[in-house]
Amino acid sequence: MTDTAAGTSPRTASDRGIEVRLDGLTRVFGSFKALDGLDLTLAPGELVALLGPSGCGKTTALRIVAGLDDASSGRVLVGGDDVGGVSANKRDMGMVFQAYSLFPHMTARANVEFGLKLRKVGAGKRRERAMEMLELVGLESFSERYAHQLSGGQQQRVALARALAFEPRVLLLDEPLSALDAKVRAQLREEIRRVQLDVGTTTLFVTHDQEEALSMADRVGVMRAGSLEQIATPHELYTAPATQFVAEFVGLSNRVRAEVSGGRAQVAGSRLPLLDGSVSDGSGTALVRPESVMVSTDGEPNGEVTSSSFLGAISRVTVRLDAGPTVVSQVPRTLAPVVRTGDRVTVRLDEAAVLVVAD
Amino acid sequence: MSHRSTVPRRIGPSLGLVPFLLYAGIFLVVPTVVVFVSAFRGDPATGGFTLDAFRRLGAAPILSITRDTLVLSFATALVGAVVGGGVAYVVSTASPTGVLRRFVTSICGVLAQFGGVALAFAFIATVGNTGVVTQLLGLSDTRWLFSLKGLMLVYTYFQVPLMVIVFLPALDGIRPQWREAADTLGASTWAYWRHVGFPLLAPAFLGSALLLFANAFATYATARALVNQGSPLLSLKIGDSLGNEIGLARGNLAASLAVEMVLIVALVMTGYVLLQRRTSRWLR
Amino acid sequence: MSATTRARQQRLTRWAVLLVVGGLFALPLVSMFAYSVRITPQNRSAFNSWKAIVANDQLRHAIVTSLELAGLTVLGMLLLLVPTMIWIRIRLPWAVRLVEFLCLLPLTIPAIVLVVGLDNVMSWVNYLVTTGPLALTFVYIVLVLPYCYRALDAGLAAIDVKTLSEAARSLGASWTTVVLRVIVPNITSALLSASFLAVAVVLGEFTIASLFFYDNLQVVIALIGLENSNVSVATSLAALIFGVLLLVTISFVGGRRPRQEVES
What we know:
Chain A is α+β, with helices and mostly antiparallel strands. Helices cover about 25% and strands about 35% of the residues of chain A.
């Protein structure tokens, strides 16, 4: 199952992936608990993103998997084998760092070849494989360039090629796009996902950018203060957040007073279904998505527009309801009426389940 | 705005540079030019230019002085580079803001400047005739301190700290990501140093060693304070020759020796600058 | 080898190396102290040689001379370098390379070489200004250029001189105001660094002073050493301790300011 001589055994897309399991990982720094019993299983070939604010422990977890740091307790199992005693350079994992990881004195090709060279692959085969990988990331004509001659985005693509060249069992990505500017980030996101699907390697991806996590991953694990708040598909995470933290970290949320009774929540004039984890009775705060807030000029007005922004494809309107709370509506332009500050409008909530949390 | 970086059209602003240029011109450029011109000057009575003074450079006594100076500089640069490099490496692995690092760099800053007379006396007090260590260990013959061997030991005292100061920035430029990337790619410690660490640091190491060489080569005060008689080093010979010739021809030999020194130092410093450029491209 | 094992190994090696090398380097310093308080026919009581630093006329004069030289050199260096470096950054960007080259040139032209060519220039200085040891100031300013240039350069690079001066000018400030009240207050740590470095260099200078037959601190230490090495050793140690205090002050002054700015 685990093959140390890279490039010599024929592998098909299906058997390239391997299961990775994090079992009760804990990491303590003095009195600070960076990781608190993290349990996570990555299916073969799956891309799982660990999403969370800085300090939540996501990078710590990644580094422990890589072997660059040791867990205080818990295990990391790759294909069923405990890799705890295996040093980083023998774990057969490819890793892409946030920035500056290309060896500056080597060309892009030499960088990509490095892992193969260490595994004693012959010069001819090395070169062939390196060019293959550079082609995969679209940089075959940049093979003789040095790091300082490449843009940030290009460097990360080379780093990706380098990490995958020796066909590692696992791919680890430590915020690879955080140091790049927005436009490059968006392009590279798709590129990385495309390559990962092509190669089929089990991948663990760490980021603080929810857009990245949601668009790239098969499943996203939201972390906070060392443990996993929720792990689910992007869609599930967004539409059915398990905790208040997840609801507010992933996407925007309106916080509106709600009264819960009979399995439903009374929020701003609408009766909405409840998500698991909500308060079952009494009053609380409902977390309502801005795209569920419908603003129209028909019907009985129940609020006044306090600000209105036209963002091209999206229209964002802030309404202060007569009942008191202020809500933000963010819907596609085609579904929104054109309103101005001061206009009286009708606000209605879409029939979507909401999470109601205790005050 | 962009045409400001090309040849200036108005003289006005350039006038602000005049005081500095004038000062550097008078006290730095002029003496250097005088040195070069004097070296070529012939008998003041007849005028004209000659290479006479340079011929003496190739003659036995001066040739061996030059050789000894080169050997001394090379040896102390080598020892300084290796020991200093080791200390610098060890310091670079410590916390960058920690007390240890700041303490060591401060001490090295002082010791690197601790040259001249004071240093000579430090060693006289240690291994001189009545030195503390001499008496402790009951050493009998301490004359070696005042010979080339002694100078080698004494020079090392400021060469090692100088190496630490000059080489440390390069070590700081080694990003931890490179070690970690090498790790994940499968490199052992040896493989990392062989393929990544040493190649990256080689230019900086060599450049720093060259700086140490130039530093030792140009040293005068320390040598003068230790070597009371004779002039076994180039710098000392220059100092000696200053008093030897009379009248306007004074310093002819001194001048040619000085030219020889400047050329060697300039050559070494050029190597240093070129290597620095390579280093800064990789390690910044 | 796990990550924590490697860290531990590094720490052990670190302490081992530093203790060995540190010990070797501390030896001469300790010896200096032991030597200077040793009782000899010339040194009748333990701290005699230390007292001689102020008691011995020749030495005291030399100390004063060197301190005066240091002060004048610092003044001259600041007056020469600060306005020039600010000016070229604001108005003459093409000159930055030239000034840098001239300032680093003394590193390539050893003091001993400079002496050979300084004869005429010094004669003029003696004729126009003074024949005393303070005439050395002019040369010393050149000697300290490389170190002071680097310190000032680092300070100026940390602030955007051009933008600051343009902003001040647009608010109506004169050039003097720009330099004295806008730029200088922002580079005080660099100014102090440069000044301390200059003092350290001047106090340690021997070559030029001795070859022009002036009696500065180092020359007199050497002179006295021929007869009474205890005093010379004591003075050398005192000078070293003074240098340590200077450089430690630099590192504290240099380190504090940026942190303050970041925190605010």
